[in-house]
Amino acid sequence: MSALEFSYTPESLRQLAADVLQQARELGATDCETDVSEAFGLSVTVRKSQVETIEYNRDKGIGVSVYLGQRRGHASSSDFSPKALKATVEAALSIARFTATDPCAGLPNKNLLAKRAADLDLYHPWELPVEKAIAIARRCEQAAFDVSPLIKNSEGASVSVQQSQFVFANSLGFMGGFPTSRHYISCAVIAGESEGMQRDDWYTSGRDWSTLAAPQAVGDYAARRALARLGAKRLKTRQVPVLFEAPLASGLIGSFVHAVSGGALYRKSSFLLDSLGRQIFPRHVQISERPHLPGAMASSPFDDDGVATHDREVVSDGVLQGYFLSTYSARKLGMQTTANAGGNHNLIVKSGQHDFAGLLREMGTGLLVTELLGQGVNFVTGDYSRGAAGYWVENGQIAYPVQEITIAGNLRDMFMSIAAIGNDVIVRGSKQVGSILVERMTVAGN
Fold first, then answer.
1. Looking at 175-256, which runs of residues are DSSP E strands?
2. Cα Rg for the chain, rounded, in angstroms?
3. Checking CA distances to 262, which of 47, 57, 159, 249 falls within 20 to 30 Å?
4. Rounded Cα distance, 171 and 168, in Å
């Protein structure tokens, strides 16, 4: 068997899932759900043209959740033998017997489960021998060194090929699954010497390896980003507009998702409690969820509960239209699941009219943020404080790089003061968004 092949056929995974459900029934479970999966991949890192790491991974696992009424137990195993599967089910049942009754526990309503399979073009295997992976990483890194003699060092260029498949099934008769792939090429380099050194990186990722950016382009751009940061200064404390570069803008949207997700809401640990139907962004902000985009990183016909996914408008004209709820969190809130067990699916933030240069002109004078450091987000209060680096902008033009600063505000205020969203859209995981301009934040420096 090749290292670039699955060990199990889809049919064998389905049979394993069926066997677990049968074991659970025979051992007295009221209901059961199981997830059977396997994954394999190759990751190579080259640093200064020398191979630093070569990693092969091949993993498999089965998770079993059983219910005794509304008492739930969960166990997992990496052993697919019949004896191990039975032991895993027994372990889950043992846990359930000692677990308190939870009125919200249980499988989804049967009529919400996905009814049919959908091919969303999520699997593009990359048959990449290790020698070729090394060659790609070397080309990527060398392209960075070729940009300038000021590129003095490297943290390495990496190539990763990952492929997986799974089957999810429950005792309501649902069974579904599919293979997926996820590949990337990355590069991180260091410009300058001594105390003046600056680091930056870039990467390209996707399900289809043929759509990745050329390795030379990744290395070249990483180098130019590092070079542009040489001579960085600190700023005096002030309040100014802040432009979040597109890769960081997805993090802002991620903070919004966290704040309106079921777990944070039913625990009352969110600054956006009871925000449904309320204005939380300006009217020009539109956010859609599109779970069925072919080839997208967060597409799926069903969520981790087996509930069918569907297109929806999460934010319309700045008004929150829906939370992100699993079956369990929806019951805790007295609502219906939004098919978001496991997270959101392809959030699309509507772009404005400006490209990146247009956003700089729109901002005029302010801070462009290209790197954030630390966590610094309090989701209970919305307070936001992050270490940052980027560029000072004057009259719509980048003036000089800045570092060792902190940007601070409150997410509620930041969301409402989004002045513009660029059309320089970049996909980072499950979010697609351009750069975001916030009207005013505190920038702390000297």
1. 175-176, 179-191, 198-206, 238-244
2. 24
3. 249
4. 11
Query: How buried is residue 176: exposed, middle or buried, by Cβ count under 10 Å (0-12/13-18/19+)?
Result: buried
Give the strand pairing for 175-176 and 198-206: unpaired
Using N-to-C axis directions, what is the helix angle for 130-147 and 215-228, rounded to 10°? 30
Q: Would you give the DSSP letter of residue 374?
A: S
d(CA 346, CA 292): 8
Q: What sign does the CA torsion over 290, 295, 298, 302 have?
A: positive
The helix/strand/coil state of 360 is helix
For tokens 């990751």, name the residue. 43
Give phi and psi for 154, each to the nearest 5: -145, 145
Token pair, residue 374, equals 């630390």
Q: Give the C-alpha separation, 203 to 434, whole Å.
A: 17
> The tokens of 144 are what?
């960075």
Q: What is the DSSP string of 263-319?
A: HHHHTT--TTTT-TTSB-S-TT--EEE-TT-TT-TT--SB-TT-BBP--EEEEETTE
Neighbour-count burial of 116, counting CB atoms closer than 10 A to its CB (0-12 exposed, 13-18 middle, 19+ buried): exposed
Give the count of beta carbons closer than 10 Å to the beta carbon of residue 381. 12
| SS3 state at 338 | coil
d(CA 238, CA 402): 14
Q: pLDDT in tens for each of the 446 residues of the chain?
A: 344 689 999 999 999 999 999 999 999 999 999 999 999 999 999 999 999 999 999 999 999 999 999 999 999 999 999 999 999 999 999 999 999 999 999 999 999 999 987 889 999 999 999 999 999 999 999 999 999 999 999 999 999 999 999 999 999 999 999 999 999 999 999 998 777 889 999 999 999 999 999 999 999 999 999 999 999 999 999 999 999 999 999 999 999 999 999 999 999 999 999 999 999 999 999 999 999 999 999 999 999 999 999 999 999 999 999 999 999 999 999 999 999 999 999 999 999 999 999 999 999 999 999 999 988 899 999 999 999 999 999 999 999 999 999 999 999 999 999 999 999 998 888 999 999 999 999 999 87
Q: Which of 433, 414, 403 is nearest to 198 (CA)?
A: 403
Neighbours of 5 (CB within 10 A): 10
